[in-house]
Design goal:
single chain, mainly beta, 5-stranded antiparallel sheet, 27 strands, disordered N terminus
């Protein structure tokens, strides 16, 4: 579970020593990832329709139209990366440790299984990221979380996993708060979110990689311009970041699970401290912490995956069972879509041909699956007039 209102299992955590006004204009919100979901429509396959706001501001995009299924029958999907301009993509399944290839016609095939994955609770095969001809994966092993790079061999329709190279390992792990999102920024660097693994104080320890966002080169080296000399730490004071994305001007957004009070949307800057566990939500500026640009009560959110399309930040929510659209230039506001229609929503990404894709997560043991769950859902996007 991703909040702390029930007793935790015994913590397994690893530290890598020596490395050195918010307005939520929402109709409903969401909280910790570990709460029971209530998604589903009495076993029927869900569908919905979105209507874009009539006053969509310049630079913004919005869902507008009927949803369609891209693929169904997935088992605890976690991350999706598209491999081309059409509907081809790679999908990670958390518990099976399988990477699936999704074809444009909605069929899937197994690309391969990531070796040595130790599934339990929130751990397993988590984030995926593509860089050049390589697939980067974040997964849980017996000795902690890790990021590996796999060469992708073959081509669309015949992708396979080549040899694995470890980028970083021994990251703090537990059955909860594993972080797991990886993404390449506009600077070409690899960013990885690492949860506090249940030891909240480690998020304030610069010598621990728990409760951090890391920044590395694609080969796993520490960039010379990282804020802490010789350390992969890019920002600290996080509880469990599971969404990261950048606007066209390079602004980095991240979504984060809170504990008992507030989940957060943050703008991430190098070397800044986001307060956990000293503060949750707003109110930390006087203590030298960065306040979130938007927060939601923890019984209304569970913000997981995040995607930036044009100047709109989309956030997928688990317990809140909603997709939020947030203007990057007014990040204290939000519009909600599909509240309760599809159950838990884990991931969101830009789809092909002016569409938005989002990924349900009702088969992970906490949801109420509908027929053929889990699924990737597509909805048309409309853009504001110039």
């Amino acid at each position: 579970m991703d909040h702390d209102r029930r007793p935790h299992a015994r913590t397994r955590a690893w530290s890598v020593a020596g490395l050195t006004a918010v307005a939520a204009l929402v109709l409903s919100a969401c909280t910790g990832d570990g709460s029971d979901g209530t998604g589903g429509t009495d076993g029927a396959a869900p569908t919905a329709r979105a209507t874009a706001p009539a006053d969509l501001s310049s630079g913004q995009v919005a869902p507008d139209g009927d949803t369609t299924d891209v693929v169904t029958g997935l088992a605890a999907p976690w991350s999706v990366v598209r491999t081309g301009d059409d509907g081809d993509a790679l999908v990670s399944e958390r518990d099976s440790a399988k990477v699936l290839e999704l074809r444009d016609d909605g069929t899937t095939r197994e690309v391969g299984a990531v070796d040595g994955v130790s599934h339990g609770g929130e751990g397993g095969l988590l984030g995926l990221a593509l860089h050049d001809d390589d697939l980067f994966v974040y997964s849980t092993a017996d000795d902690g979380n890790r990021v590996q790079r796999y060469e992708l061999t073959g081509s669309e329709g015949s992708w396979a996993l080549g040899d694995a190279t470890t980028i970083i390992d021994g990251l703090p792990a537990n059955t909860f708060h594993d972080g797991g999102r990886i993404a390449f920024g506009p600077d070409g660097m690899l960013y990885a979110s690492v949860g506090d693994a249940g030891t909240s104080s480690d998020a304030q320890d610069e010598d621990s990689l728990a409760g951090k966002i890391l920044r590395l080169t694609p080969d796993g080296d520490v960039p010379d311009d990282n804020p802490f000399d010789g350390s992969p730490v890019w920002s600290l004071g996080h509880r469990n970041v599971q969404g990261m994305g950048w606007t066209s001007d390079g602004t980095m957004f991240a979504s984060e699970f809170g504990q008992d009070t507030h989940d957060e949307l943050n703008v991430i800057e190098a070397g800044e401290n986001y307060g956990w566990p000293e503060v949750e939500g707003t109110g930390g500026e006087d203590q030298g912490f960065v306040d979130p640009v938007q927060q939601w009560s923890t019984d209304e959110a569970s913000p997981s995956g995040l995607a930036v399309v044009d100047d709109t930040v989309f956030v997928a929510n688990l317990r809140g069972e909603v997709l939020r659209a947030i203007p990057a230039d007014e990040p204290g506001t939000a519009t909600e879509y599909f509240a309760g229609d599809f159950g838990r929503i884990r991931t969101v990404l830009e789809g092909p041909s002016d569409t938005l894709w989002f990924v349900t997560n009702n088969t992970d043991g906490r949801g109420d699956p509908s027929a053929d769950d889990d699924r990737i859902v597509s909805v048309p996007l409309t853009r504001s007039a110039p």
